[in-house]
Specification:
Helices cover 40% and strands 16% of the residues. It is globular, with a radius of gyration of 19 Å. The strands form four sheets. The protein has a seven-stranded parallel beta sheet with strand order 3-2-1-4-5-6-11, with helices on both faces. Strands 7-10 form a two-stranded parallel sheet. The chain has eleven helices and 13 strands. The protein is an alpha/beta fold and 340 residues long. The structure holds nicotinamide-adenine-dinucleotide and UDP-4-deoxy-4-formamido-beta-L-arabinopyranose.
């Protein structure tokens, strides 16, 4: 059974992936510097899995941190690399912080993987690399648009770094997963997204508004060319996304798998902001308060995935629908705030 290093494993997607890995019997080691997470995340993983996960507190910008992990756990055969900064707006204000963290961490990791003969890498990329595509849905062959933020650019550059590194000598095999919009929470309600400060993303803003922590949701624009005028995204449940990493690991262990491959991870369904509000309203005693405001600069109008390649090649199939996503997010928010 594989031994897996999960970088950024205290974060939102990393912690859900660690849970799914442990449930399926994989040995997991987590490294994180808590720059966007809290130690309590490890307690939540333990509560759900009833397992203590080996944890290393460390910053991947320091190559010694990674080397020491590979020395101490000498049979790690897969790294799932989540550790990165992800706030689009902050990346515009502080681009160097983003290039430094996201790119340097990846380069350090690749150097160390080569040095310690760690064979497999799964990398977190993003649908942000497509920008506003000319045709929908997007396949992995859809031409990429210039990144609209330094954050997006770190994902594009990271994809290129991984591909170039692999082409230079086949030291490792890698799968790049382009996540669409990860939302939702563990089915137990004991783990979910924990944004710091005022949420930028739709679902945490909605659940905080539902609980009265925020007064009203601002809906950014209702003059888009969509069925109700609000922008469309492909929301994917975080546990389905987590399982895409496990299916990718299985695929990488197949000798015929190519050295590097890219997959879209979304449901293939596009939902508008108002569709999401209508979904959560099914689980609320009173309708969610919202108002229409101007478009948010930098937002794309609509995007959703063609996920055929992931289904056919990785044998990955999303199980959760939009109502599962909104209700699990709400359940987590209520449990976390002690109102359930
Ligand atoms: P997150 O911020 O919740 O988790 C990232 C974790 O990495 C955090 O726990 C943070 O403390 C840690 N980290 C950051 N830099 C580090 C470093 N230098 N050394 C050690 N630890 C470090 O983010 P997430 O939502 O779980 O995202 C995980 C990955 O998926 C990121 O690479 C992100 O860019 C990518 N992604 C996220 C989304 C999304 O909407 N959440 C969408 C597409 C892609
Ligand atoms: C979703 C929709 C908003 C908040 C971001 C990153 C992207 C990727 C996924 C990492 C949009 C609308 C939102 C609010 C709203 N992350 N909205 N009111 O912008 O699609 O993608 O996360 O790679 O790179 O940009 O996600 O959740 O912010 O927005 O109306 O208060 O909800 O306009 O249409 P987004 P989001």
């Amino acid at each position: 059974m594989n031994k897996v290093l999960v970088t950024g494993g205290a974060g939102y997607i990393g912690s859900h992936t660690a849970i799914e890995l442990i449930k399926k019997g994989y040995e997991v080691i987590i490294v994180d510097n808590f720059s966007n997470s809290e130690p309590s995340s490890l307690d939540r993983i333990k509560k759900i899995t009833r397992k203590d996960v080996p944890f290393i507190f460390g910053d991947l910008k320091d190559r010694n941190v990674i080397s020491k992990i590979f020395e101490s756990f000498n049979d790690i055969d897969t790294v799932i690399h989540f550790a990165a900064f992800k706030a689009v707006g902050e990346s515009v204000a502080e681009p160097l912080k983003y290039y430094n963290n996201n790119i340097l961490s990846l380069i350090n990791l690749l150097y160390s993987m080569k040095q310690y003969n760690v064979p497999n890498l799964i990398f977190s990329s993003s649908c942000t690399v497509y920008g506003q595509p000319d045709e929908l849905p997007v396949t992995e062959d859809t031409p990429l648009k210039p990144a609209s933020s330094p954050y997006g650019n770190t994902k594009k550059i990271s994809e290129d770094i991984i591909t170039d590194f692999i082409n230079s000598g086949n030291y490792i095999k890698s799968i790049i997963l382009r996540y669409f919009n990860p939302v939702g929470a563990d089915i137990s309600g004991d783990n979910g997204e924990l944004p710091q400060g005022i949420p930028n993303n739709l679902l945490p803003y909605i659940t905080q508004t539902a609980l009265g922590i925020r007064e009203c949701l601002n809906v950014y624009g209702n003059d888009y060319d969509t069925h109700d005028g609000t922008a469309i995204r492909d929301y994917i449940h975080v546990s389905d996304l987590a399982n895409a990493h496990i299916d990718s690991m299985r695929y990488l262990s197949n000798k015929s798998a190519p050295f590097c491959d890219i997959f879209n991870i979304g449901t293939g369904e596009g939902y508008s902001v108002l569709d999401v509000i209508n979904s959560i309203n099914k689980f609320l005693d009173r309708p969610l308060p919202y108002k229409i405001v101007n478009r948010r600069p930098g937002d794309v109008e609509k995007i959703w995935a063609d996920n055929t390649k992931a289904k056919n090649t990785l044998n990955w199939f999303p199980k959760f629908n939009l109502d599962d996503m909104t209700s699990s997010s709400l359940n987590w928010e209520k449990k976390f705030r002690g109102t359930l």
